[in-house]
Write a structure and sequence with these properties.
Radius of gyration: 20 Å
Number of helices: 15
CATH architecture of the largest domain: 3-Layer(aba) Sandwich
Helix content: 25-40%
Shape: globular
Number of strands: 16
Low-confidence stretches: 1-7
Mean pLDDT: 95
């Protein structure tokens, strides 16, 4: 019995061996990385529908997506699969390719899939079918309506594509979804419930209902100047910019990855998740919940707060979020908070909501793997209320020990992942 308990309590190291991305910067992790280092804003006027009468007209669309999906999907699949599912499959394909895993040589029952999709599920299909219902009657609604748009379908289709037969699930926590999905997959491997996992987040937001809803809520930046629409931690900021895409990661148990000679981008060494219990849309202004999530991730990592080399911030460019996240960082790090490099990817690619945390996990892994901390696009005029060391130019030759990636979602959901170089 004692030996069984010891086996059950054994914890495993978890590493990242595959990464994939589909963002407003383009298809793949390299276009994303290049855009971040060049501080290139990838946002623009909405083209998917006429935004003239909307409060907000700027978003982060996937460039040339209609042509891109023709190379990945048949016309039939493109009609039946929600955009967030399509995005998830494209990002997962790259993650599997970069991992160089041969699924035919692995036990599929040891391969989990935690892929979360869509703050509202497949909203494009939802809108289309609702219009049919009220203009043509109930018999016009597609029999595939429900399995096309519900949020677990990203995980379902990714697992079916590769034959993953381990735990298959999704986590929906608004803008913290991608981080919580990655953290959930990390825990499955850490506690011995899987040897490998595909994880990530996907999002489709550029549909009339969501843009109208977020715009009327006052959450989006009301400007027609795309180059100055998303400005994390900048005193001129006035809201986030909605964008679309997906981020995907392949996680493996450390010994398994080493045995097959895999390239290891980084190790996930900690995960923290907390709730604010404060407000349905506003973060706790004291930053208590986000600070506790970061602290839990650091404590699990075995490192100390003094080891934090940089923070990949949630940094949405809303007034409330950026000041609350600043407060959280100071709660965690004290006076040293003003010295730690902080950056946000959202100035370049906007806010991918359910996909944001996954993309930021990808960027954190690349940052440690390549020894570069990316700058923050859109940041130029510091806000005294956000007295942070916001990175404005790529930082190279930095000895990185521990990186933190933050997410904060509507409803008070906080998530933090801790990454370290694999040694």
């Amino acid at each position: 019995m004692e030996s069984q308990r010891a086996t059950m309590q054994q914890l495993h190291r978890v590493v990242i061996t595959g990464v994939g991305a589909l963002t407003p910067a383009g298809c793949g992790v390299e276009p994303l990385w290049d855009a971040l280092l060049a501080k290139r804003c990838c946002l623009g006027r909405i083209t998917r529908f006429d935004p003239t009468d909307y409060a907000v007209r700027i978003a982060g669309e996937i460039p040339d997506y209609d042509n891109l999906r023709n190379t990945f999907f048949s016309h039939k699949d493109a009609r039946r699969l929600s955009r967030f599912v399509q995005y998830a499959l494209i990002a997962a394909d790259e993650a599997m390719r970069t991992s160089e895993l041969d699924i035919s040589k692995e036990d599929p029952c040891q391969f989990a899939c935690v892929f979360s999709g869509g703050t509202g599920g497949g909203m494009e299909i939802y809108e289309r079918e609702i219009i049919k219902l009220y203009t043509k009657g109930p018999k016009a609604v597609s029999p595939l309506f429900i399995p096309s748009m519900i949020a677990n379908m990203a995980a379902a289709h990714v697992s079916m594509r590769y034959g993953f037969k381990g735990e298959c699930t999704n986590v929906i926590t608004a803008c913290a979804t991608g981080t919580h999905a990655t953290g959930t997959a990390y825990r499955l491997i850490r506690h011995g419930d899987a040897t490998m996992a595909m994880c990530g987040g996907s999002e489709e937001t550029i549909v009339p209902t969501l843009i109208a809803g977020f715009g009327n809520l006052g959450a989006l930046m009301p400007t027609d100047d795309a180059q100055h629409a998303s400005m994390p931690f900048d005193r001129r900021r006035g809201g986030f910019v909605a964008s679309e895409g997906a981020g995907a990661l392949v996680l493996e148990e450390y010994k398994h990855a080493c045995a097959r000679g895999a390239h290891i981008y980084a190790e996930i060494v900690g995960f923290g998740a907390t709730g604010d219990a404060y407000h349905v849309t506003a973060p706790d202004p004291t930053g208590d919940g986000a600070a506790r999530a970061m602290r839990r991730a650091v404590e699990e990592s075995g490192y100390s707060i003094a080891d934090i080399s940089h923070i990949n911030a949630h940094g949405t460019a809303t007034q409330l979020n950026d000041t609350a996240e600043t407060a959280a960082i100071y709660r965690l790090c004290g006076s040293n908070a003003s010295q730690i490099p902080v950056f946000s990817v959202k100035g370049a690619i906007g806010h991918m909501l359910s996909g944001a945390g996954a993309i930021e996990a990808v960027v954190s892994a690349l940052s440690l793997d390549r020894g570069i901390i990316p700058p923050t696009t859109g940041f130029a005029e510091p806000d005294p209320k956000c007295n942070l060391n916001v990175v404005t130019h790529p930082l190279t030759n930095n000895h990185q020990v521990l990186a933190i990636s933050n997410s904060m979602g509507f409803g008070g959901h906080n998530g933090a992942l801790a990454f370290a170089p694999c040694i």
